[in-house]
């Protein structure tokens, strides 16, 4: 069987047999503790500056951000954005309670359907699970309440993100994910798909010159809900992770 | 498998140098890719330390590759996926074809993947009545033009705008003949429209993988267009093609390497879409594939472990080495004659197709060292190319003229008195001949040198050794 052939060839190259049990346990332990390596200092900022960094990075990558006071302000923000972009007043939106729970009656002309995206949908309204300030990146795990196609098929994606869900570095998002809901299939923490999205789709394949809107959305607009009156407390998962590895200190991968 | 023209590198390179269109395309990118990378690196003060971390993560993984591959495969299966272990390209092609046939597939969409080029998946599927559709913009036009990619991240690097327009007019014949491409975005919009229906109709989607994660059983792809995501999200079946060295232990390890990848490749801080796929559609999910297969391919990698070339398995395919290579910069990628061009190709190609066929490649280097200095995982590319030159010499594969020349030089190099005398006479003669001229346009036995540039005539004062001794006698100034 090719599996045995491949593993056998690797072991011959490494001049050893299968790893002894204690070394296997050590490597399994490294996976279980998943040590952090160096985390760049750029996202280690006071809360307000961290959110400002997130916005700056989204805009640097050709996305747009609008700050809204609460979820009640979203229907007006969506309708106004569509009007300003000269887009039809129709959206397909994620069946997420944060979005379906909004009182949309304030904008009766805005047509809405909560479902996955199909060909021909012009605008999606997605629920963003988290934002990463380090590079202005949205974290979009798949699930019944957050279909992946909403990130891909429409020409315009509008994403609703709570300011309290903006973290500094990718590693903070991973720890939040690990502390979150169990996957129904694996019992682990990974959903089927996680998209990290940084700005709208683009390509430089024609003459190495950047053009927006290759296959995914041409526009990415983020509605940032200001739900964070006071600086956020660190979550227990983050506090634990930082206790084992100081920010900025590289952990040796072999440890 | 892709047709190999590596043995004809010298003829390929001469043709490339005379190709005005190619030279125009290569000139356009000169400096811009360097500048973008340099700016992204300058904006991240920790970049150098991240390179060391990236190197160490990959070294740790390779030293325990058997363990991490088994851990990864177990997690894939837990998430409802299937892993197909394939030692050879033949096995991998057969595995892909079998999955497609089992699903009754007629068309297959594809995300950009270099391992797919290495395996020649497209030809194999086509030969068996299944239509593969490349969806990366650059790969799409190359599939139409029946050309291989010339760059590992910008496959259509060698084309100019007029080539795109001409090909699109030839192939998209149902569109108005007199349509005008005002901007590059018009070309892209046409491809977007044409490909959208292909995405929706495909039965199977095939992508590569930038990383595999042992902790979670995830495959990671990195794209800017979103084509890879459409490829792996819309069809009922997703096939991941990945070589064995793509595995890393944890999300944290992948994250550190991702911080290096886009900055080294395109000078972006992060690519637009970095996507982690883990198994099949979950209960309640409204989209995503119902079947998830990983074709895990060795195809020569395991033979590199424990050899001088193990370090090459750290490569994360960013293309920084070719973007900074003075040889790639004038020949382009096709001259290298197989899938992987530039310095990384000059090391990898001989391991995969044999030094007897690829011997020209490790010699196609000035050893300027730029590739090693920009490599995000610190692969000593010039050292590895030198190892190949040594092996080529040991196996008597280098041309007779090179062997005689080296033997001639070695005779003198081992006899310092003779060497000094010979160089003194040579320099003296050249100095006399070149007096007043400053440089030679041609010289006997040096046609290879003077064909491309003049040889400067030696200045009066003798050889380096003579001047050095004179200086020593005169005391330090």
Briefly summarize what is shown.
Chain A is of the alpha/beta class. Helix content of chain A is 29%, strand content 20%.
Highlighted features:
heterodimer, A: 255 residues, alpha/beta, Rossmann fold, six-stranded parallel β-sheet, four-stranded mixed β-sheet, 7 helices, 29% helix, disordered C terminus, B: 477 residues, 3 domains, 12 strands, 51% helix, 11% strand, metal-binding (chain B), LutB/LldF family L-lactate oxidation iron-sulfur protein (chain B), LUD_dom (chain B), iron (chain B), 4Fe4S_Fe-S-bd (chain B)
Structure overview:
The complex is a heterodimer of chains A (255) and B (477). Chain A contains seven helices and twelve strands. Chain A has 255 residues and is an alpha/beta fold. Chain A has a single domain, classed as Rossmann fold, CATH 3.40.50.10420. In chain A, the strands form three sheets. Chain A has a six-stranded parallel β-sheet, with helices on both faces. The radius of gyration of chain A is 22 Å and the shape is elongated. Chain A starts with a helix and ends in an 11-residue tail after the last helix. Chain B is an alpha/beta fold. Chain B is built from 24 helices and twelve strands. In chain B, the strands form three sheets. Chain B has a six-stranded parallel β-sheet with strand order 1-10-7-4-2-3, sandwiched between helices. In chain B, strands 8-5-6-9 form a four-stranded mixed β-sheet. The model of chain B has no long low-confidence stretch (mean pLDDT 93). At the A-B interface, helix 1, helix 2, helix 6, strand 9 and strand 10 of A face helix 2, helix 4, helix 5, helix 9 and helix 11 of B. Chain B: It comes from Falsiroseomonas tokyonensis. Chain B: Keywords: Iron, Iron-sulfur, Metal-binding. Chain B: It holds the Pfam family LUD_dom. Chain B: InterPro entries: 4Fe4S_Fe-S-bd (IPR017896), 4Fe4S_Fe_S_CS (IPR017900), LUD_dom (IPR003741), LutB/LldF (IPR004452). Chain B: This is LutB/LldF family L-lactate oxidation iron-sulfur protein.
């Amino acid at each position: 069987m090719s599996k045995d052939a491949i593993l056998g060839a690797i072991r011959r190259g490494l001049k050893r047999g299968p790893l002894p049990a204690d070394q296997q346990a050590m490597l399994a332990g490294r996976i279980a503790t998943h040590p952090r390596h160096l985390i760049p200092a750029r996202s280690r900022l006071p809360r307000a500056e961290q959110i400002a960094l997130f916005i700056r990075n989204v805009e640097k990558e050709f996305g747009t951000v609008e700050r809204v006071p609460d979820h009640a302000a979203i229907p007006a923000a969506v309708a106004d954005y569509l009007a300003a972009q000269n887009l039809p007043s129709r959206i397909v939106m994620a069946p997420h309670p944060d979005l379906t729970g909004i009182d949309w009656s304030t904008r009766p002309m805005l047509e809405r359907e909560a479902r996955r995206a199909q060909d021909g949908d012009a605008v999606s309204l997605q629920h963003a699970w988290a934002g990463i300030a380090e590079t202005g990146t949205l974290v979009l795990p798949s699930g019944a309440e957050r279909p992946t196609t909403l990130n891909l098929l429409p020409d315009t994606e509008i994403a609703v993100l709570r300011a309290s869900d903006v973290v500094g570095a990718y590693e903070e998002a991973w720890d939040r994910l690990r502390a979150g809901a169990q996957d129904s299939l694996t019992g682990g923490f990974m959903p089927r798909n996680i998209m990290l999205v940084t700005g709208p789709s683009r390509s430089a394949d024609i003459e190495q010159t950047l053009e927006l809107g290759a296959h995914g959305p041409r526009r990415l607009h983020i509605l940032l809900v200001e739900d964070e009156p006071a600086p956020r407390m660190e979550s227990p998962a983050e506090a634990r992770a930082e206790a084992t590895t100081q920010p900025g200190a590289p952990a040796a991968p072999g440890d | 498998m892709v047709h190999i023209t590596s043995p004809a590198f010298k003829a390929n390179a001469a043709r490339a140098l005379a190709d005005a269109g190619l030279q125009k395309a290569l000139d356009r990118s000169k400096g811009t890719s360097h500048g973008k990378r340099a700016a992204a690196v300058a904006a991240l003060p920790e970049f150098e330390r991240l390179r060391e971390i990236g190197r160490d993560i990959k070294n740790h993984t390779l030293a325990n590759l058997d363990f991490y591959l088994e851990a990864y495969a177990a997690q894939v299966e837990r998430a409802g996926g299937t892993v197909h272990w394939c030692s050879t390209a033949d096995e991998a092609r057969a595995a892909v074809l079998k999955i497609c046939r089992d699903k009754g597939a007629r068309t297959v969409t594809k995300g950009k993947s270099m391992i797919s080029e290495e395996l020649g998946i497209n030809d194999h599927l086509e030969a068996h009545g299944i239509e593969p559709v490349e969806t990366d913009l650059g790969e799409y036009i190359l599939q139409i033009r029946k050309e291989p990619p010339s760059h590992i991240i910008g496959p259509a690097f060698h084309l100019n705008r007029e080539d795109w327009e001409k090909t699109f007019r030839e192939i998209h014949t149902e569109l108005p003949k007199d349509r005008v491409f005002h901007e590059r975005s018009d070309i892209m919009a046409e491809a977007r429209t044409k490909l959208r229906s292909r995405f929706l109709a495909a039965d199977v989607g095939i992508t590569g993988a930038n990383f595999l994660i042992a902790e979670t059983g995830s495959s990671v792809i990195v794209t800017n267009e979103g084509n890879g995501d459409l490829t792996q999200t819309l069809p009922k079946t997703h096939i991941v093609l990945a070589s064995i060295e793509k595995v890393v232990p944890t999300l944290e390890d992948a994250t550190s390497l991702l911080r290096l990848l886009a900055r080294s490749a395109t000078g972006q801080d992060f690519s637009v879409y970095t996507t982690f796929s883990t198994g099949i559609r979950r209960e309640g999910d409204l989209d995503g594939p119902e079947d998830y297969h990983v074709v895990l391919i060795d195809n020569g990698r395991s033979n590199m472990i424990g050899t001088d070339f193990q370090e090459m398995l750290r490569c994360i395919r960013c293309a920084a080495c070719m973007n900074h290579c003075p040889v790639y910069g004038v020949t382009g990628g096709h001259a290298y004659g197989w899938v992987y061009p530039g310095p990384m190709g000059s090391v990898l190609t001989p391991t995969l197709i044999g030094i007897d066929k690829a011997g020209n490649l490790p010699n196609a280097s000035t050893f300027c060292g730029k590739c090693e200095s920009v490599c995000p995982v610190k692969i000593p590319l010039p050292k590895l190319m030198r190892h190949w030159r040594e092996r080529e010499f040991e196996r008597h594969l280098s041309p007779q003229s090179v062997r005689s020349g080296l033997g001639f030089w070695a005779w003198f190099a081992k006899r310092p008195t003779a060497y000094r005398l010979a160089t003194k006479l040579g320099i003296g003669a050249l100095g006399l001949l070149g007096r007043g001229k400053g440089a030679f346009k041609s010289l006997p036995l040096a046609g290879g040198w003077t064909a491309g540039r003049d040889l400067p005539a030696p200045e009066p004062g003798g050889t380096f050794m003579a001047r050095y001794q004179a200086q020593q006698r005169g005391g330090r100034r």
